[in-house]
Design goal:
The chain has 308 residues and is of the alpha/beta class. It has eleven helices and 13 strands. The protein has one domain: NAD(P)-binding Rossmann-like Domain (Rossmann fold, 3-Layer(aba) Sandwich), CATH 3.40.50. It is 41% helix and 16% strand. Helix 4 runs parallel beside helix 6. The relative contact order is 0.15. The structure holds NADP nicotinamide-adenine-dinucleotide phosphate. NADP nicotinamide-adenine-dinucleotide phosphate binds next to helix 1 and strand 5.
């Protein structure tokens, strides 16, 4: 099996590539603006570059994590959001239709619960999407193209874990609280936090089993961001006084959030025969990794971008 991971320089992609390599799966990871050891550069917005990459690589599966997941940025940059969130899949579809052989790779598109409106989550694969934001609409458009190709859509949500750029929710909260800065956290956004290593394992498994259709991959706890923040503070021994509960409306964000979101992973779990970890287990693993990283004295790069 040969797998391409588009967006392997990102948070989730770097874990996916790691797990594939550990399992001795032949794999190629790509970056766009942030290079990394062993990664090749690919701009998924560049049709010609994508075509050469796909034709020359002869992949069995292409996992597409290349994206701009900063929901606020996407809301005020809709054209760029389309270029980063939909165009990569639309290019792939054209390339594969042109090649049109039985040896075509399976396209695994990584999507989000932001395709739902958040009126009655947690959602199953059977529920009807109704995105509220530009980002959600562009993800849904890419999903439809993927399904028309008979590919795979894997929806993930609120992924947490150790991240070099410290931009996932847990990492940002830890960073701010350690620097004694208050963080406003919504009490009315409900979701299913998911440990990054589980997401990576799930994507590797989807590729290995050549699963098709839609799969939800989300942790079993359905809780508010505020409750999640308190659990993070407890495990990471942070002062909870820095966590300020607010309503989403008070944050003055441009993009509408699905409030009662989150997803159910029963279909995925019964297909693969293992369960995703809850936040107690996931956070303790994250905490162990942070301790190891600190004792090894690794520096951590901080960026200003915030994603989902
Ligand atoms: N993290 C979450 O909680 C979460 C939740 C739901 C869904 N998702 C989805 O999961 C996927 C991965 O998320 P993430 O958190 O890992 O995002 P991330 O850390 O921001 O990574 C995004 C990746 O996309 C690459 N990329 C961006 N524009 C590109 C382009 N034009 N051509 C090629 N590559 C490009 C980036 O490369 P460079 O950095 O090298 O530029 C990076 O490797 C995304 O599709 C996101 O929508 C994530």
């Amino acid at each position: 099996m040969k797998v391409a991971v588009l967006g392997a320089s990102g948070f989730v992609g770097s874990y996916v590539l790691q797990i594939l390599r550990r399992s001795q799966v032949e794999s190629v990871g790509t970056f766009f603006q942030h290079s990394g050891a062993g990664l090749v550069r690919l701009d998924c917005g560049d049709y010609g570059a994508m075509e050469s990459f796909v034709r020359e690589g002869k992949y069995d599966s292409i996992i597409v994590l290349a994206s701009q997941p900063n929901v606020e940025w996407c809301e005020s940059h809709p054209d760029e959001s389309y270029a980063r969130n939909t165009l990569p899949i639309s290019h792939l579809a054209k390339i594969l239709t042109k090649v049109n052989s039985s040896g075509n790779p399976n396209v695994i598109f990584v999507s989000s619960d932001y395709v739902f409106d958040g009126f009655n989550g947690p959602y199953t694969e059977e529920d009807r999407p109704n995105p509220l934001s530009v980002y959600g609409r562009h993800k849904l458009e890419a999903e439809k193209i993927t399904l028309a190709l008979e590919g795979t859509v894997v929806r993930i949500t609120v992924v947490y874990g150790l991240e070099k750029n410290q931009k996932n929710f847990a990492e940002r909260l830890i960073r701010e609280a350690k620097q004694k800065r208050k963080v406003m956290v919504p009490v009315d956004q409900i979701g299913s936090p998911t440990y990054v290593e589980d997401v990576a394992r799930a994507l590797a498994e989807v590729a290995a089993r050549q699963l098709r259709g839609i799969y939800h991959v989300a942790g079993p706890d359905c809780i508010s961001r505020y409750e999640l923040a308190l659990r993070i503070a407890e495990v990471m021994q942070l002062d909870p006084a820095y966590i300020v509960p607010v309503q989403t409306a008070e944050l003055g964000q441009k993009a509408k959030r699905p409030l009662r979101a989150g997803m159910l992973s029963g279909k995925f779990e019964s297909t693969v025969g293992w369960k995703l970890q809850g936040i107690e287990q996931g956070l303790s693993k994250m905490q162990e990794q942070i301790s190891k990283t600190q004792s090894a004295g690794f520096g951590i790069k901080v960026t200003g971008l915030t994603s989902e």
